[in-house]
Amino acid sequence: MKLFTGLAITGAMALLAATTALADVEIRITHPMSSGAGKEAFDTIVAAFEAANPGVTVKQIVFDDDIYSDTGLITQLQSNEVPDIYFQWAGYPVQRDVEAGYAYDLSAAMSDGWKDTFIESAFSPGSGTAFDGKIYMVPISLDVTNTIWYNKTIFAENGLVPPATWDDFLALVKVLAAAGETPIVTGNNELWPLGNWASHIAARTVPSAEYDAAFRQQKTFAEAGFLKPLELMQGLAEAGAFNKDMQGLGADPAMAAFFQEAAAMHPIGSWLVGSEGDLAVEGFDYGQFDTPVIDPAMNGSKSVIGTMTGFVQHAKAAHPAEATAFLKFLTSQDEAVRWAQSGAISPVEGVAEKANLSPQMKGMADMLAGADAMVSPPDTTYPVPVAEAYYQAAAYAASGEKSAADALTWLDETVGAMPKP
Amino acid sequence: MADRNNRHRPISTGASNLLFVAPAMLVFGLFVLWPLASSVYYAFTSWSGYAAPDWVGLDNFRRAIFDDPVHLASYLHVTLYILGTLVLEVSFGLVMAVMLNSDRPGYSIMRGMFFSPMVLSMTAAGVLWAFVLDYRLGLLNSVLRGVGLQDWAQPWLSQSSTALIAIMFVSGWKFSGFYMVIFFAALRRIPRSIYEAATLDGATPVKQFFTITLPLLRQQMLTCVLLAVTGGFAGFDLFFTMTNGGPFDTTQVPATWIIRQGFDNNQLGYATAMTVILAVVVLIVSIIYLRLTERGDHVRH
Amino acid sequence: MSAISRRSPGEWLQLALGGAVVCAMFYPAVWMVLSSFKTNREIFKHPFGLPNDWKWSNFAEAWDKGGLGGLYLNSVIVTATAVTLTVCLATAAAFAFSRLEFPGRRWLYRILLIGLLLPPPVVAIPLFAILRDLGLLNTLTALVLAGTAWSLSLTIFIMTGYFNSIRPDMEEAAMLEGANIWQIFRDISVPMVWPSMLTLAIVNTINIWNELMFALLFIVDDEKRTLPVGLIRFFGRYSTDYAMVFAALTITTVPILALYFLLQRHVIAGLSATAMD
User: Fold this and answer.
1) How much is the average pLDDT of A34-57?
2) Which CATH class is domain C65-240+249-276?
3) Which domains are seen in chain A, by residue range?
4) C58 to chain A, minimum CA–CA distance in Å?
5) Band of the pLDDT at C5, cuts 50, 70, 90?
6) Which chain B positions have a beta carbon within 8 Å of A70's beta carbon?
7) What is the ipTM of this complex?
8) B175: left (phi over 0), alpha (psi -120 to 50) or beta
9) Domains (ranges, CATH) in chain B?
10) How far is B287 from chain A (nearest CA, A)?
11) Whole-angstrom Cα distance, residue A378 to residue A376?
12) pLDDT of residue B262
């Protein structure tokens, strides 16, 4: 069947190629998808695009995640030979690219009905893909940046079930710790893995206006009420929740440790699913539950933390027409389904239903559908140094290096020394 | 590094002789001096690397010196690290140079083996040691658990109390061979008759080390100490691959903090201000260094 | 066996102690090579023993998966060019600093010191901007020029020290016979310091071969990456496949180790030249 669809697309694109007379060109795409099922799917889509567009070749410039966001992307954006298309996280990063003149306004290209192929919220204000009514990013995935993955076997051995409330959760952690298991493994040497989770917990315990004011440096974190989330982190530390080496461990080795049954739980994003094939031991059985309800009285007690990721077309792309054509191809139904099946939740309308999703991905999609609010990760929403300072404060409390109160004092002193926007 | 005092009379004078240094100075000027000089401008700006830089006067310097505890702490860490290297690299290198100073078969290959960590790339060394020091699966902890010392097994690179010390040991492993070679070469130039005479006088090898070897190696020790100090300030690769400043900035040294602020946090203006500060510190060290070598030369002549 | 070659108890102690330390220092490298022949399971189950079954296929697999061939080629191109350039420019400059007099000599020599004391990463940002303006980003030329520039200081210092340790009698004699400076440099001085040039070539080869920071920042394309960067990516991707990681490490470090052992005498002789006094 796939072969036939492929042929049909090839035919259609050949016609398109004939009419728009695409010349012999190379488009350059840079992204951090360096391994796993996602990379395979993307390679397949690229190959299909090249087959459908004779004369157009796609060159992928790939960096690992951390290197991409630290130096890989910025060095390319500033070079003389800019990438035509680059991967970006929705929110603050895209906004910054718009201000610096790197992001191309795709509104005109979107106006021919392309925009309507996405779910409604894809370009809503606050989505981080559009600013001042202009669209700058083509989203390809809705990433849940933190949820709690658990090892079903270890849970069953200890007679445990996913908790409904924070108190249940804490009790469960204590049971696991007493049984000699590592309850939670996290690789926090880059600070964002635990930081994301701590931010989600903060968003559940701090009123949203206060939360926003603190990260925008309009209020101190103490005034905004961030003691509570840090105390929850401290409580986990006291219950013996975390692996001892979390501050020195990388995100990838921590994920590997979870897949090798070295810990019962692993709080990380939806992309974990894509690494199962590479990392999991045989017969590995896992499930997922979201951060349990902390305070039922608070708004967003069933919130989900997440963001969209996708591609931005560079304003100075050497081959803008071909670049846009690729982005359209990438988000066309068939390709979006292919992409979703590699372990992503697609923002393209109807794809989530059509794609053949794993139980874990299905759980993610359901969770998103049932969420009463969406929280964005601070490091893609607010200035990075402020976000990182909170992440570090959370790590202080979670590792037992500082008490929650001391971590909060440290946080406000650190952020206080930063220049105000 | 000896310049003035050892120099012979020039065989030719004149501006045309500049041609011999011009190519080297051109490359050096373009890719070392010019970037350094141009960074001075960015140091006075707020610049994310994305939008155009904004002039902010001395703000960056004020922040670096008064409001950034991690920046100040990074100088403490680098000082501790340098003190550590004096013991684990320079002194250890000296002891091993004496130990491996023999013409017996096998010693040449042993010196080569001792030097070999110098040849490995920092990337390779970093991966190797990450595996040795890993908490869960690492060699070191496996050995400790194997011999019944469970409580001694530590997350070496993940806790503030041990991370910097662990790095010092890895540094000692990596670089002590360099100092060994320098001391070894100097030892070879000490006439053997001095030791033979001392032996006849009944001096033990340990006494000979302190009364003959150490005084004669004074000049090399001065050089090595200074190389360790200046090399310590330049240290980046080791810290970057081992901990990248963590946990909780307790292994943050000036170079890693500059890169963190500049690239991770997109504060290139602030990062360049700290670069300028580092350059000034290094310059002061280099002046002291020049004074010391000049004095050393006087002592010798 | 003559009496001279019999070891005294002190010498036995020296051999035992020295040997133990050397073995401990060298063990990680041996362990790396042995592990590269094992399976993942074996690395964890029997970290210290010899491999049960020598898995040579690990190397072929690492070579293919990591695209090590291309990385090797780039590293060889960059290293060979930069080392040649460094040693040639440095020898000419050291000759001038030691043998000739010209305006600004002392100052230029002192300015060079900056390169010895400053860590390259601190100028990474402005250096990046300059390479961009020159249109050199994402080219191997950028790595060659940056690598050369940052190797010049040390090389010139050691070379100048070496020149200073040799009396300029030959050069003076040639001068009296009417040879010009260039002829003296080419025909007398270069042959004289040739062994030192070789030593410095080896030392610089080790440094430039292992250079990471510039390669990470200035190169974007996969096909232009050098070994250290390629390895970092490889480790990121196969972070849990230790057999693969050690195979890749072994393939990339054993040649440089072998080169070092072959030329060890020169390195030690060179590093200990008068420059270090």
Assistant:
1) 91
2) mainly alpha
3) 2-143+307-364 (3.40.190.10), 144-305+372-416 (3.40.190.10)
4) 17
5) low
6) 263-264
7) 0.86
8) alpha
9) 59-300 (1.10.3720.10)
10) 33
11) 6
12) 83
